[in-house]
Design brief:
Distance between the termini: 29 Å
Radius of gyration: 18 Å
Order of helices and strands: EHEHEEEHEHEHEEEHH
Number of helices: 7
Helix content: 25-40%
Strand content: 25-35%
Strand order of the largest sheet: 2-1-3-10-4
């Protein structure tokens, strides 16, 4: 059978490869398709029935046809060149970050409006010089010296990003909630439910079935960090 998942670049690149490898080993005859986009685009694909499910962060405006089940929390880090002055600022502050050009997510991502709100609350105006939907593109421009990046912590790979450094910023920005989004009154085949279980072992099939039936699922007080 076919199985189509909508997701963002960050999830497709950093969190799903291990899941997909395991899934394809178990279901080699299933044709798995990934469709990438912003969380808004991913959610709209679910609402239209164009994909079976989506793995993405929450959106500002929830769609009636979609039920999202939060499964992980995503913290943020500031990614800088390896000799950047911010590496010596302890603790890191929003005021210190605001002194530099910023590269971050496009407005279709929760990470962007969380960032904007954090600076607004402190009366600061961040100098966002580039918005992107691809964390790897953002890091490439940091390496070129065009600014610093505020990204999901999982998007930094020390083995690959050797010319960069990551500074934990969870104390400055609240986490986003990564969710599995399904269509209300939709249907997932057993192998699709297995995929969800591989990605989020803490999510029970019962809760997935309740979401498909149109019920809103209570969010645990403390989601695991991805």
């Amino acid at each position: 059978g076919d199985f189509t998942v909508a997701t963002t670049h960050t999830q497709a690149r950093y969190t799903l490869p291990r899941v997909i490898r395991r899934f394809k080993s178990r279901y080699p005859l299933v044709r798995l398709v990934l469709r990438q986009g912003t969380p808004v685009q991913c959610t709209e694909l679910v609402a239209r029935g164009s994909v079976d499910l989506a793995i993405c962060t929450e959106t500002r405006d929830e769609l009636e046809q979609v039920v999202g089940i939060p499964v992980y929390r995503l913290n943020r880090s500031v990614v800088v060149p390896r000799s950047h002055p911010l590496l010596k600022v302890k603790p890191l502050t929003l005021e210190a970050i605001a002194r530099y050009p910023i590269i971050t997510y496009d407005e279709g991502f929760s990470g962007r409006w969380v960032l904007d709100h954090a600076f607004f609350e402190r009366g600061l105006q961040p100098n966002v010089v580039l918005s992107a939907i691809d964390a790897d593109v953002s890091k490439a421009y940091v390496e070129m010296g065009l600014g610093i990046a505020i990204l999901a912590t999982i998007a930094f790979d020390p083995a690959r990003d050797r010319g960069l450094r990551s500074i934990d910023a969870r104390h400055l920005f609240p986490p986003s909630r990564l969710r599995v989004a399904v269509r209300r009154h939709g249907y997932l085949r057993p192998y699709m439910l297995d995929f969800v279980s591989m990605f989020a072992p803490g999510l029970t099939r019962e809760n997935v079935q309740r979401a498909l039936a149109g019920e809103r699922i209570a969010t645990p007080r403390q989601l695991p960090e991805l």
